[in-house]
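Translate structure to sequence.
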């Protein structure tokens, strides 16, 4: 199959009629368990072992490692959504998604009942750190790396061995699991922490809720990836969401509240 044919064959996987497209390879026995264990293991390492100063390079190295793993398993660059021929489409789809995302964040800050949940103490950093976080740590260390890992490597591997619907669901669940340790470690820094502190049942509920929300976001990012046939689309949407939430939190803590 030529590159043009390969791209054309994957350009409409976002359409519901293509969600049950037959995979091109047989599932690997134990592959899902291995993917889940690897996801949780790295999440633990980057959140509890790797020094904060190494967060960005560690995630970049992890993203490269996941890409290497995907390629060694037979995934093509098209499977990974990194073909240069679809970058332009990825930018257009990503920017189109960024508009409603920005509107939702702005609305959340404008409404007093939801505004307080933006008052996350992680945004209370110095000016230089804030600039680094907004321009490097969040968009590159988090958004780009997570999209390469989940909507690039993991989704790409799954698309060869599962239907698009199954691949999207599984990658979204893994994305939710990825956020278990950071949620546990930072819950006390958000106003939500005051409701669950000292109560393991409520804490468990908050972690499960965070996992479900991030899994739902993972489904949305995967749809953007399939819609554009490019991982660039969810990179933009993810980066805009996280950066605006960070800036909104700083605004709430310093000027609005």
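Result:
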């Amino acid at each position: 199959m030529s590159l043009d044919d390969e791209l054309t064959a994957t350009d409409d996987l976002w359409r519901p009629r293509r969600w049950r497209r037959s995979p091109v390879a047989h599932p690997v026995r134990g592959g899902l368990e291995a993917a889940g264990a690897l996801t949780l293991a790295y999440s633990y390492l980057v959140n509890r072992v790797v020094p904060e100063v190494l967060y960005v390079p560690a995630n970049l190295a992890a993203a490269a490692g996941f890409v290497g793993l995907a390629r060694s398993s037979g995934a093509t660059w098209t499977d990974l959504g990194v073909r240069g021929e679809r970058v332009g489409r990825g930018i257009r789809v990503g920017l189109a998604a960024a508009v409603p995302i920005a509107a939702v964040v702005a609305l959340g800050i404008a409404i007093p009942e939801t505004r307080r949940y933006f008052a996350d103490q992680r945004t209370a950093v110095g000016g230089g750190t804030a600039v680094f976080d907004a321009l490097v740590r969040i968009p590159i260390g988090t958004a780009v790396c997570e999209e390469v890992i989940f909507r690039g490597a993991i989704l790409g591997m799954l698309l060869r061995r599962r239907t698009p619907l199954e691949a999207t669901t599984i990658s979204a669940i893994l994305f939710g699991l990825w956020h278990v340790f950071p949620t546990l470690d930072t819950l006390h820094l958000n106003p939500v922490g005051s409701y669950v502190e000292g109560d393991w049942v409520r804490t468990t509920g908050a972690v499960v809720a965070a996992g479900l929300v991030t899994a739902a976001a993972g489904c949305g990012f995967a749809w953007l990836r399939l819609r554009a046939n490019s991982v660039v689309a969810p990179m933009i949407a993810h980066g805009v969401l996280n950066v605006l939430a960070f800036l909104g939190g700083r605004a709430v803590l310093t000027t609005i509240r």
